[in-house]
Amino acid sequence: MTTSLDTLATALYVKIDDLLKASPQLAPWRPKAGIPPKLSDAELVTLAVMQALLGFTSEARWLRYAHLRRLFCYLPQQSGYDKRLRAAASLVGHAIRALACDTAVWTDDVWVVGSTPVECGRSRETVKRSALAGWAQYGYCASHSRYFWGLRLHLVCTPRGLPVAYALTGAKADECEVLLDILTTDPDLVATRRGQTLIADKHYCGREFERILAGLGLRLLRPARRGEPGRAGARLFKPLRQLIESVNATVKGQLDLERHGGRTPEGVIVRVLQRILALAAAIWHNHKTGQPTLRSLIAYDH
To answer: Which of 56, 262, 278, 298 could be bridged to 268 by S-S, CB 3.0 to 4.6 A?
Structure first.
């Protein structure tokens, strides 16, 4: 097996098809009576991952390109593609976990935590008329020294960049509360991870917050805030903190996270999941093919 987009797409299709055969309840709901879709759910998810890896932010342009390249025997129209992709959001989420668990780095005993903006609009008129109003908010990104209107993607990943857990919230959501929600919503994730180390920035702080993490069997490492005494492992924070920034840069730069094009909550959610799945799929395939750099997308973006 080689590292190319064609081999990744073939392997991913087989993986998701096997996942659906083993757990058919993961497939999007459709009425029992009626004509079955010409494009299977496994093909749909594979098509979405290829779109993200190749950098097509426009569904219309992507479907024209896929049609000209004859990538699939049948391709839906843009409206049908969007509708089916939104309905398959839950399947995309399960596919992310299935791929992550099928790698050696899934069992890594260190997690890196962070959040990054997901911009959803820039004009005042967009803010007033958008279907995202009420969920999307004005926020500030200290890493880039800018204000934005939109959401935040909270990501827990391994040092090699493999997505472990994630959440999409309003821009002003408290990072500590979101992380606790991520960990308590999926208790199986931490039940077998006693002694897991979390590396975060100085915003993940608070006596009660750290007490809850300790109760879950997790050890938090973060830089000391102003006025606090020095904390253990301080010399390791700078290089390790760059890991989550590097992962965010991959998702936002190579996978065009901030050019997602979603205009409704359902549309934004599935487009963010689409990009997380593309990252997980690249890491999974690089692991299976024995590549030295698991997070490299170079072999798949052209």
So the answer is: 262
**Pairing relationship of beta strands 137-141 and 146-157 according to DSSP bridges:** antiparallel
Amino acid (1-letter code) at residue 191: A
Do 126 and 207 share a domain, yes or no? yes
Distance CA 81, CA 84 (A): 5
Closest CA to 111 of 183, 208, 207, 200: 200
> Which regions of the chain are under pLDDT 50?
1
129 and 242 fall within a common domain: yes
Using a 10 angstrom Cβ sphere, with 0-12 exposed, 13-18 middle and 19 or more buried, the burial of residue 185 is exposed
Q: Helices 41-54 and 89-101 sit at what angle, rounded to 10 degrees? A: 80
Q: Output the pLDDT for position 154.
A: 96
Cα separation of 185 and 205, whole Å? 20
Query: What CATH number did the domain enclosing 140 receive?
Result: 3.30.420.10
